[in-house]
Amino acid sequence: MTAVGLELLPRSTVLTPGPGRKRSADELKAIAEEASRRFDDRGLYGNHTEIDPAEVLAWAGETFGDALAVACSMANTVVPEMTAPHAPGVDVLFLDTGYHFSETVGVRDALAATPGLNVVDVRSPASIAEHKAVLGDRPFETDPELCCRLRKVEPLDAALSGYEAWITGVRRVDTDHRAGAGIVEWDAKHGMVKINPLVAWTLERVHNYADEHGCLLNPLLDDGYPSIGCEPCTHRVEAGADPRSGRWAGSSKTECGIHL
Ligand code: SF4
Q1: Among 33-42, 96-105, 133-142, whose mean pLDDT is lowest?
Q2: Residue to substitute in 138, 152, 225 for testing ligand 1 pocket (most ligand atoms within 8 angstroms of CB)
Q3: Distance in Å, CA 148 to ligand 1 centroid
């Protein structure tokens, strides 16, 4: 792809924050650092599992109100459903790349019907056809980094620009890069607070919580896909294998870029 070709594509742009307040980066950073001392110091030096995600989410709802968003991959709905009681009507950002499994879209649709949550589809302004016209027919194979940047990273960056804080399902055991993640962090890239309430949980614990509380689980989880991304880049894995090994299998890529 040429630089000229890239310039021809509609690109995600940073949104102008809405009429509501948005505190300065310095103010938000101070909030993140204070919360990190409150939650992470206890978690890092004590027993990680002692930090109750509900306590973190109650703080998040009180502190950020409608300036809070939840990012959800639709592998399960634990984080948005945990958040809803503490932030009624919270926006749940779904990265609608256009390459998702139908099962993932089904979970998105079911979550959108859940009271207390507002599912927001976050999309690239360019269609898949427009991207393929410039990038070739299989951009997820020829340049997955660029494909992820255009269909995930840039659209999410634009969507997040209207909020003060975002909640994710990041867990330390997911990847080496996430091993040092905190419960509350200053997200310098986005100039906002990042909250990872399940950071110390295992995948098994997430699924047990979903079973106990009636949260949705993507049916692909029982079909050999313990980690679920876009269909062209997600493969089944053998039982007992690294759950993330089916993501961009055969390449060194382990992250789509939204948590880098
Ligand atoms: S996961 Fe694959 S299909 Fe989805 S945006 Fe990234 S490269 Fe493209």
Answers
A1: 33-42
A2: 152
A3: 5
Residue 106 Cα distances to 34, 79, 152, 206, 243, angstroms: 39, 17, 19, 20, 22
215 classed as catalytic: no
Give 43's pLDDT tier (boundaries 50, 70, 90). low
With beta carbons less than 8 A apart as the criterion, state whether 15 and 161 touch: yes
| Dist. CA 152 → ligand 1 center (Å) | 8
- Please determine, for residue 56, whether its predicted confidence score (pLDDT) is greater than 80: yes
Q: Is the CB of 148 under 6 A from ligand 1?
A: yes
Under a CB-based contact definition with an 8 Å cutoff, are residues 10 and 126 in contact? yes
Contact 183/195 with Cβ under 8 angstroms? yes
CA of 140 to the centre of ligand 1 (A): 5
- Domains by residue range for the chain, with CATH: 23-246 (3.40.50.620)
Question: Does any ligand 1 atom lie closer than 6 A to the CB of residue 256?
Answer: yes
Q: Which of 3-7, 115-119, 237-241 shows the lowest mean pLDDT across its residues? A: 3-7
Question: From the CB of residue 165, how many other CB atoms can be counted at a distance below 10 Å?
Answer: 24
User: Ligand 1 within 6 A of 151 CB?
Assistant: yes
- Average confidence score pLDDT of the chain: 89
Ligand 1 pocket check for 97: Cβ under 6 Å:
yes
CA distance 28 to 20: 15
Q: Left (φ > 0), alpha (ψ -120 to 50) or beta: where does 87 sit?
A: beta
Q: Of 99, 108, 125, 106, which Cα lies nearest the Cα of 73?
A: 108
